[in-house]
Amino acid sequence: MAAGIAPVAVDAMGGDSAPGAIVQGAINAVRQGLDVVLVGREDRVREEIRARGAVGLGIPVRHASEVVEMDDHPGRAMRGKRDNSIRVCFEMVRSGEASGMVSAGNSGAVMAGAIFVLGRLSGVERPAIISVLPAVKGRPILIDMGANVECRPVHLVQFALMGEVYARRVTGVARPRIAVLANGEEESKGTELTRRVAAALRRSGLRFDGYCEGRDLMTGEFDVIVTDGFTGNVALKTMEGTARAVGRLLKRALTSTVPSKIGGLLAQNAIREMKRRVDWREVGGAPLVGVDGVAVISHGSSDALAVENAIRRAFDAASARATAEMAEAASRAGGLLEAAERDELELAPAPRRRRASVDG
């Protein structure tokens, strides 16, 4: 455990399998040397700890009397249920009692709680969600993957700048390769939004590699892939569905005949490694960037493995202490867009003057 890092606050009441799977994931994380505080209805949380024979670990529990349900309206739940487990986690982060928080509960409520309690980083217009993608090499990140359905150029430029800081400070990529998700590699492709963002990023001084096509999301050729939340969420869900379909087809093929069954047994280790590589539980959760603190949003169906890895992801982000640098980076977005627009005006051909007609 790094010196000076407070425990991670874990929402024990959020998720389809709460509190059991959440408590088990926290127990696993503590056994791996990570400090956590479980937040939720104390009697239920302690009962789960006892049932798992983990009383001796001394995991602290912070009581929160209310729970945000999956069908609750996020904003109303944050305002009306002021002692809910998500909000209590954020209040612990704001006070310094926790270095970050993890929740597999209502993702909209986690977003709302982050903005209401922690607030946006100075100069950041929209917080964004980062998803770590399974890839042939490395661990590329996709930003945004669902927080912002409609975006303006300044939002995507800020996503790129914050994503670069995250990739460098948290995941350890010395000089991240940045790309904008589009429908082709050529500069003329994309939309007006992507072209304006790309023009600004070319002037950023970062390692901007242009456009990333959908087929390159999982190659590992890019470290930070920038898009709006609508496109990012569709892309992510498509990859998840494709991975499941390929897994089922592979299982069917390897059990169809006796020779294929023998081949499947011989390839067990390779298949196991492939499954681990594309398993979203190995990632654990999606960090929320652009707010004044560390928050990790886990999948609603998270099991103990996913929760354990989400806690590790929150701890890594807190250890990096990158929020101030993200705020500074995001503040450059407006200037980069203005510079790109000035360059475009200077390069544009001057309008042709109409020649006056001459009689006779």
Please trace the helix and strand order, writing H or E for each element.
EHEHEHHEHEEHEHEEHHHHEEHHH
Q: Biggest β-sheet, characterized?
A: 11 strands, mixed
The dominant shape is globular
Q: What is Rg?
A: 23 Å
The helix tally amounts to 14
The largest sheet has its strands arranged as 3-2-1-4-11-10-5-6-9-7-8
| Percent strand | 5-15%
Q: Which structural class do you get from the secondary structure elements?
A: alpha/beta
The share of residues in helices is: 40-55%
Instruction: Please give the domain count.
Output: 2
Instruction: Please provide the count of β strands.
Output: 11
CATH class of the largest domain: Alpha Beta
How far apart are the termini? 92 Å
Q: Classify the fold: give the CATH topology of the largest domain.
A: Isopropylmalate Dehydrogenase
- What would CATH call the architecture of the largest domain? 3-Layer(aba) Sandwich
Give unreliable regions as ranges: none
Mean pLDDT: 88
Q: CATH homologous superfamily of the largest domain, by name?
A: Isopropylmalate Dehydrogenase
